[in-house]
Amino acid sequence: MFKLFKKGSGGTPPADDKSAAEGANPPADAGAAAKPSWSERLKAGIARDAAAEGAGSPQPAPAADQQADPTALESILPGPQDQAPAAYARQNPAATERPAAAPVAVEQPAKRPSWTDRLKAGLAKTRANLGGQLNALFRRTKVDEDLLEELESTLILADVGMDATRHVMTELRGRIRRERIEQPALLQKVLQECLLEVIRPLQAPLDLDSHKPFVIMIAGVNGAGKTTSIGKLAKWCQGQGKSVLLAAGDTFRAAAREQLETWGARNNVSVVAQEGGDPAAVIFDAVQAARARGIDVVLADTAGRLPTQLHLMEEIAKVRRVIQKADPSGPHEVLLVLDANIGQNALAQVKAFDSAIGVTGLIVTKLDGTAKGGVVAAIARQRPARGPLALRFIGVGEGIDDLQPFSAEAFVEAMFEPQRGAAGN
């Protein structure tokens, strides 16, 4: 690159770059004292810092000829952070200030809804189906025969069943006459009380203290949720302070044993199982093992059976007889698992399994997936002469705590929409 200079300016052209550099920085023998290098000045500064901090006196201001050249600092040190901490902090106070840490939000564990809330959520489809239609009826201006006939049809469509519906309507008509009920808005409470009267006999808590080990045989058709219910029931038994042993008696369905072992690991309970063994032999060994270990409850899984397969129903009857050989007083409870989605077909299953193995209690599952929870009332009226079977547990979700003892009052309340009062309010 060429530089142009104007003639006649009275000055002389500057020397080349090398001459200019030598003029700006004369050598040491030019008569002036050599300027200390930046490293030496930095060491001297650190020494003064240490001496000043030790004496507790402020550091004296450096001489003018000892002021650091910023360009030299950048060329010698990779960054200001490489200086001595004390010196760097005084020269750059803002750089050493740390921003205040933002408060850390502590995530609180979600509060689990109560069983009543979960029951209401589980029966939302039933409530929308039954309660929605009833609310339309209860907003009418008067109680007449047309209203009662529509009410009867609504109960039948909710799978309450013909027998239970007739019983409820007979009781309802009698109370309308006796109590002179004329406003439809007052019928909901009366209807709930009539349904509660039908369902209440099903409520019978399971007593685990009568025998040890208390042997519970669980049966049901394929897909009813039998093995899952066993896992949840094991959790409930542990909540009652009982030790539990599982017997993998379903040796026919693929992965049934593995599924039960998974539930056993989840509940930290032992599982007695054999690969491809005889179901009755597996359960026999489980009862013997429970007696030897002092286990409180044995939950015996069995293979799923259709009530129309009579030869297979005979096999499950054999399992019951083998349990009686292991414990003459057992099984102490025979639970039939019913899928609420099958509606009135549940009545046929109850009849067939009861005939084969003597069902003593029921578990109704998947109530959260059906709009026809009224099947519970139909079950309650199935055996009026002998008395209804005990509905031990109901399931309204997939959670391990979503299988709970049946409460008739809570169930009926969860089936209905909240009462809205008389029409026009």
Strand content: 5-15%
Please report the distance between the alpha carbons of the first and last residues.
Answer: 97 Å
Number of strands: 8
Helix content: 40-55%
Instruction: Going across the biggest sheet, name each strand in turn.
Output: 3-2-4-1-5-6-7-8
Distinct helical segment count = 16
* Overall radius of gyration: 43 Å
Return residue spans where pLDDT drops below 50 for at least 5 consecutive residues. Answer: 1-32, 70-77, 421-425
- Helix-strand topology string: HHHHHHHHHEHEHEHEHEHEHEEH
Shape: flat
Sheet with the most strands, sense and barrel status: 8 strands, mixed
Architecture overview:
The chain is built from 16 helices and eight strands. It has helices at about 15-25, 40-55, 70-75, 85-90, 115-120, 125-140, 145-155, 160-180, 185-200, 225-240, 255-265, 280-295, 310-325, 345-355, 375-380, 410-415; strands at about 215-220, 245, 270, 295-300, 335-340, 360-365, 390-395, 405. It has an eight-stranded mixed sheet, sandwiched between helices. By secondary structure, it is of the alpha/beta class. The protein is flat, with a radius of gyration of 43 Å. Helix 5 (about 115-120) packs across helix 16 (about 410-415), helix 7 runs antiparallel to helix 8 (about 160-180) and helix 12 runs parallel beside helix 13.
Descriptive labels:
16 helices; 8-stranded mixed sheet; 425 residues; alpha/beta
